[in-house]
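This part of the workshop introduces the protein records we will be handling. An example says more than a description, so a record of this kind follows:
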Amino acid sequence: MQSLPPRLDQLRAQGLTPGLSLQMHALLGVAPEMYRTRVEEVDTRGVGVLVPMRRLRARPLPWATPFRAYYVYRGTRRTFDTELTGSSEDCSLQYLALPACIQSVERRGLFRLETILPLSALRRVACTPEEQEEVSLLPEGATLVDLSEGGVGLRTSEAVLPGEILEVALTLPAAGELLARVRVLSTEEPPEGYSFRRLHCQFLGLTRADRDKVGRFLIRRQLEMRRSGRL
């Protein structure tokens, strides 16, 4: 029996095998569209799936459509980013590019993408003794240094303590404006001679629309990085 290439072995060891049910979020238009399908083949051509279904109807999708796919294997929800690369001769299957990696989507396993984006604004949110909100603008120059569906990493010169609530505003390229509140989980003080500290933050009450924006940005950015060989 012919052995599988190491990459295929690794993918199959993570449960990406024929018969697996996939939920796929396709980036079409303003918001992701949800499809369901089943894996039929996993080989050097890619991941062959039944024509994705949306609202109980098969809907063939155009070449190069980017996806984020989800599935459950051994009790853990997993995800990978991919794109549609073609169809079988009889059009019964559509092929997805083999994923560069498969991630767990448990809270501690959310994929975190390192990226540098300037913040439009960074604000501190505090409660007064009268239990009213007090929002104060922090100095300019803060940047976002990493992003996941669960939170952000920030770089700022302002002294911020774990547990504080911040409001961040920024533009996610090709996804739109994001205004969100985060809780500071931990801080890294700057090395000697430097003034910028790093904050590790968790999103608070992120709306579905804003979560979609984050998802769109992450998918597009990862695909761009994979095409250029940086991921």
